[in-house]
Amino acid sequence: MVRVLATADWQMDMAAGFLNEDAREYLSAKRVETIEVILELAKEEKVDAILAAGDLFEFPSVSPEVTNAVAQVLQRSEVPIHAIPGNHDLYGQSSVWNTPQFREINHFHLHNEQTQTEIAEGFTLHSIPVKSIYDIQPQDELLEDVSDEDGVHIVMAHAHDVAVGTFGGHEDDCKLPIDSSKVIGKGYSLLILGHWHSWFEVQENRVLYPGTHEQTKFGERDAGYVAIIDVPEDGSEPQIEKKKVGQIQWANEEFDCTERELPDDFIEFVRQQVDGGIDFLKLNLIGEVDVDALADTIPDAIAACGPMVRHLDVSFDELTKVIDVEAMTNKVDLPMGLREIQSSILSELEDAQGNEEKTNNLIDELYALYRACRDVGVIGE
Q: How far does Cα 227 stand from its chain's mean position?
């Protein structure tokens, strides 16, 4: 038997521009730390090799800081590492793979050409690197039939498995097709794939996307894992064990604002998520709120929750605005003149229901009016 650890899509030096600055720095540091977790797991599990199926870096050339940080961690590995370039980190003279930091890691083996490597006696690794992001030749056609050959044969590639479609549109401009059923049909015992960031067993115990070691964005359903795989020497079915290594906890949650005590209920909901270990939180607000809550109470609640969580993203897209002109006019007692401006805005809001852009602009106007009045003492807090 040979035991391997399968991983892919580290995406080191990714921008994560949708996160705030502190969250980006936190994510970047954790992505390096999680590589250390992977290496420690490989040691504990006594694996014979680590297989890294492409896109370990977000770009072919990355910052010196990231190059040094990753190379420093990989230097400490006690297990041989076999890696291929993916569509994000193509091999080239000026790529990260050609830096002195990586060339001098003796146990790190980059397969930038299609190779066959014996990773243990009787076990051959067939590596298929990405050579061009525009390549549309099915990668399974690059493999010879090994059904009648001795030993056990494992394939590592970075590709879209045509057996499972488009993965919801993931990088549709980069085809990189492979047909896993044809690979297994040619006598290969195991196919390890990169490109899809979530854990996905295409064919149980035979074809696996281990996914990224740390989730890269909201919506990735099953990220933050590696696989420990035992491959029998007789070519029978491998055994795959899913291992959690990701440290950052992401969550997509809904919060129904209808008839809630705002801002208290909102703040308590976020606090519960944080107490549950969530680092990055995306809240989708649903239900009905009045204009005052939308213009004032909810923004204040979001501001109060900001320091509680590493990153908070709030969506208003599914929130229905209830506009009661009479109630709003009576709620905020403005002097003559300003009261007429308020009534005009509220009337326009009532007419603008269904027009998202116009409604948002009018809410901003109303919010600015109230803030200005409070700032000069016309109305109290």
A: 18
